[in-house]
Amino acid sequence: MVLQHVAALAQGPPLTAHEALSGVFGSISLASWIFLLVPQLIENYKQGSADGISLAFLAVWFIGDITNLAGAVWAGLVPTVIALAVYFCFADLILIGQCLYYNVKNARKSRKASTRSEDSVDQPLLGRRDSSNLGLPGSHRRRSSALSRRRRASSLPSLVEEEDGANQWVKNSLSILGVCVVGAAGWAIAWKTGVWIPTPTQDDSADTEMALGAQILGYASAVCYLGARIPQIIKNQKERSCEGLSLLFFMLSLLGNATYGAGILFHSLEKEYFLTNLPWLIGSLGTMVEDITIFIQFRAFGNGEHTVAIAA
């Protein structure tokens, strides 16, 4: 998605305010994509599970990155851009591999647990007795008091949980601010060192013709990006929970898409340029609506713990 914008590194006119903003937004978008998958990888590791994220979501997203890479190669973009496209695909594979690992690992654990429970059912009743059922003095009293404590705790307002949620939003906001600072600083350094230079707003016919071969792949990747989040939204709605999902993951996605679209529009609003970048604009700005939908689900469902506590 960000590849078309990052690829424009040809000689051009002096730097203008619009072109500077285009470069800054493009650099922030690039930083967002580079750090995008890290929060979800960390969240899966902390949970020891990948049940919260939809594999269909990741699979369709991966197909979108593959078509994006193919489009970059077809258009003959600079090696740096192709290397970034390869990085995106590689990062997707890491996250998908981690999810498959935890799914297989936890499935084996659940099978072993079910096997042990079946074995315990076949044991004689006397063999299954434990100290809690022997009528020892105080055993029932301890058990009932522990149960009452759990009920009392679950009935209290979860102020600590709400405070943790607020702190999490603050941490995520600071992370977003940090990515913005890194992106802007990266653009300033690239501009000062001559790595980034303003690009002409006029697209010559050769460049336009070269990009036509990648247009179909661009629209294909846009369709994949738009459709990828639908399985995740459906999964969240069915389970009425966003447990296991990293909020920062979707915040970075929203930031990357928004700054990428802004980078294109600040560069030029000419019809030819706009139509050339239309599939990438659709893929980036269109998915922002779906990201906002997931934010609403985070707000409505949270991680499911509060709902469970009330039900108890």
UniProtKB/TrEMBL annotation:
It comes from Lentithecium fluviatile CBS 122367. GO terms for biological process: vacuolar transmembrane transport. It catalyses: L-histidine(out) + L-arginine(in) = L-histidine(in) + L-arginine(out). Pfam families: PQ-loop. The chain crosses the membrane at residues 20-42, 54-75, 81-102, 174-190, 210-228, 248-266. This is Vacuolar membrane PQ loop repeat protein-like protein. The keyword Transmembrane helix applies. It comes from the Eukaryota. It is found in: Membrane. Residues 139-150 have a biased composition (Basic residues).
